[in-house]
Amino acid sequence: MLLSTTATPLAPQYPPDGADENRNVCPILDITKPNCNCSNFPLTGKVLIDLADFAVPETQTTANQSLNSNDDLEGQFDQVLDLDVGDTDESGAEYEPSDEEPLTEERQDNDDVEQFAEVILMKGTTFHSHFQEALHACKQLMLDEHAPELSLSPEPVNKRDENAIVVKALLGVWKPIGYIPAPKVPKVTDAMRKNEITSVVLHNVIYKYIFACKGHRYFAKILLLKRNRWLPNSVNYEYNDPI
User: Fold this and answer.
1) Overall pTM > 0.70
2) Considering its fold, how many domains does the chain have in total?
3) Spatial contact of 220 and 122, defined as CB atoms under 8 Å apart
4) Residue 72 lies in a domain
5) What integer pLDDT is reported at residue 29 of this predicted model?
6) How far is CA 171 from CA 122, 174, 223, in A?
7) What local confidence, expressed as pLDDT, does residue 92 receive?
8) Among 79, 70, 71, which residue's Cα sits nearest to residue 40?
9) Among residues of the chain, what percentage have pLDDT more than 90?
10) HSE (CB half, 13 Å, CA atoms) of 193?
């Protein structure tokens, strides 16, 4: 004997048949009106909003802007990326060379003194296509197990900070791939002036979707080695402060 069964939906269809076309709907959140602090954090991507019906306030500026305006947003993104990309505190760790590293004269000299590592998430790359293209090339090289050579260079003509330190990668020619973040600029500058930095290597390149940019972006960490201990971060450092 054959039994026929009819599948019953687990939940009613929405909207229900014959529903009133004028039924109540959830209104759009107007972030220009609430006084709660959630409207002060537009870059975390935690609040979904529709910006079509009202002007975006200054603190909620979208990513479709000129590069000059976008430069002002880099600091806001940096605060988010410190948490979002996973920039853990890996500074000040004592460096122990691997047995697999070749025993060169430089390594013999460096083995005579303590060396300390600093892992740094570079800044200033979010909105600039030439940085993103260079980081893409770096990522491809790392996937092929051929990390590019890196260098640190002062950039006194930088329009935001005359103390800026740009990180460059050798990709046929030297190309910039990011900047040392402001709180670390004084101590990296001090190490460069004392000629204490012994190695600059690409630690990791991260490709991550950034909600506020509505797209993926590359971010990179570098590993710096220096003789003697690193100075602490300068949390009160401001652009163009004397060093």
Assistant:
1) no
2) 1
3) yes
4) no
5) 61
6) 18, 6, 18
7) 59
8) 79
9) 47
10) 8
Please provide the distance, in angstroms rounded to a whole number, between the alpha carbons at the two ends of the chain: 91
d(CA 234, CA 161): 15
d(CA 110, CA 141): 28
- Contact by Cβ (8 Å): 169, 222: no
User: What range does the domain containing 120 cover?
Assistant: 89-227
Tracing tokens 């004592």 back to the chain, one arrives at 94
Asked if the bond preceding 102 is cis, omega within 30° of 0, the reply is no
Taking Cα atoms as reference points, which of 157, 148, 153, 156 lies closest to residue 166?
Answer: 153
Output the CA–CA distances (angstroms, integers) from residue 191 to 35, 152, 231, in the order listed: 46, 11, 9
Residue 207 resides in a domain: yes
31-90 pLDDT, tens per residue? 566 555 554 544 444 444 443 443 433 333 333 444 344 555 565 555 555 444 444 445
Identify whether 1 is part of a domain.
no
- Average pLDDT estimate for 151-158: 96
Token reading at 207:
């490709």
List, in order, residues 6 or more apart from 202 with CB less than 8 Å away.
Answer: 138, 142, 147, 148, 150, 169, 220, 221, 222, 223
DSSP 164: -
217 part of a folded domain: yes
Q: Which two tokens stand for residue 33?
A: 């009106």
* Structure-token pair, residue 6: 């009819």
